[in-house]
Amino acid sequence: MKALLxxxxxxEEECIETVIDELTSSYPEYDYVVVxxxxxxxxxxxxxxxxxxxIDLPIxxxxxxxxxxxxxxxxxxxxxxxxxxxxDGQHRAEYLPALIEGLADxxxxxxxxxxxxxxxxxxxxxxxxxxxxxxxITTGKTIKDPTSGMRAYGQRAIxxxxxxxxxxxxxxxxxxxxxxxxxxxxxxxVNMSERxxxxxxxxxxxxxxxxxxxxxxxMLIQFFR
Length: 225
Prior knowledge:
The protein is α/β, with parallel strands linked by helices. Helices cover 41% and strands 16% of the residues. The chain has helices at residues 16-26, 43-49, 62-76, 96-102, 123-139, 155-163, 171-181, 204-219, and strands at 3-9, 31-37, 54-57, 81-84, 108-112, 151-153, 185-189. It has a seven-stranded mixed β-sheet, with helices on both faces. The mean pLDDT is 91.
């Protein structure tokens, strides 16, 4: 299967070289494209200097816009699957084969931290449980790790994400595609690492707001798309 890793990157100058060098040295069989999402730091300069394959967005579009740019690239270049992969080192490439293999039976495969492990007790996990409950209520599908950003998408999902407006790689999009488009979703167990450097844009306050916004969108807004 011809696979492409789409790697959205916003201000990841401290991480991007380590992530790409690890991929190209240990997993050269996978293609990748970095999507520089209007970074204000040296992310784009590093990509140019190191001759990485990358798309340079002139402004910051956010995760949804950056990921969709990568998916459009994959569709234009006839890739069979897209793997969403973080630029901060949290996603571990050792799980790529399992994600790709899962596409034999599903349109989307989620790298899940909680297939065979309980969720820790935290406000963030409370939000994750709320989103999972909303997805279960609206679609009948149980997804144990709906906020995981490590996902593989098959050709059917690629076509929908490349052409559909506002279809970002978020839990409400999963619910919409399951409910309205009949997309099949499965999970495979993964572990994730701490980010290599820098700080996540999601702090306690923004994480809480994100979780509740996603839950409301899953429950209500997605059906008006």
